[in-house]
Design a protein that fits this description.
CAPSL protein, Recoverin, domain 1, 220 residues, mainly alpha, 2 domains, repeat, two-stranded antiparallel sheet
Length: 220
């Protein structure tokens, strides 16, 4: 990777700053127009940027003490509160009912997050997965610092050049773009990558533009 494209990659991570700002503004604007409770929760998450939905997922995961990957209503409300989502109890009940399809009193939070994610066409999902596979050098479904070593040369990064950061710190900063803002573990799963780009995707109207952006960003 030549120095310029590396620099571009680190500083303009596809869809980071500019798209994030546009998307957050758009989400806040749309909030006043919709009464659909799921759409309102989605927009409230997106108003926090691309990692908004993923951040909520992380909170639910932390709360899931018994690893059942399900939440009851009390846990659901607590998760929303911990994430500072201001939702009244009636609206929370309505959302919970929508997701508790079998009326068991619990919801599957993977299903919840997939439904909360802004819908994407198959063409968009496919290009996102192409980028993921390119980065996931080891092919184990998780992108780590080790994977990046084989794909990018950190030595061109200005902070590496002026001695501020080590090579690993450059890679870590890169991974942090996709990681949850509240629980960065330096590992990016397919789901996190997809959630991140679902956020970016929400601010881009056409598939064609989204695909061109991804191809340019990741040299696909």
């Amino acid at each position: 990777v030549n120095p310029h494209s590396m620099r571009a990659l680190v500083f303009q991570m596809p869809g980071t700053a500019r798209h994030d700002r546009e998307m957050a503004i758009q989400a806040k604007r749309n909030l006043s127009k919709t009464t659909d409770p799921v759409e309102r929760l989605r927009l409230k998450c997106l108003a926090r940027g691309s990692a908004g939905i993923k951040g909520l997922g992380r909170i639910f995961r932390i709360m899931d003490d018994d690893n059942s990957r399900t939440l009851d209503f009390k846990e659901f409300v607590k998760g929303l509160n911990d994430y500072a989502m201001m939702i009244d109890k009636e609206e929370a009940q309505e959302i919970f009912r929508i997701f508790d399809k079998d009326g068991s009193g619990t919801i599957d939070f993977d299903e919840f997050l997939v439904t909360l994610r802004p819908p994407m066409s198959n063409a968009r999902k496919e290009i996102i997965m192409q980028a993921f596979r390119k980065l996931d050098k080891t092919g184990d479904g998780v992108i780590t610092i080790e994977d990046l070593r084989g794909v990018y040369n950190a030595k061109h990064h200005p902070k590496y050049q002026n001695g501020d950061w080590t090579e690993d710190q450059v890679f870590r900063a890169f991974l942090d773009n996709f990681d949850s803002p509240y629980d960065k573990d330096g590992k990016v799963t397919t789901e996190e990558f997809m959630n991140y780009y679902a956020g970016v995707s929400a601010s881009i109207d056409t598939d064609v533009y989204f695909i061109i952006m991804m191809k340019n960003a990741w040299k696909l």
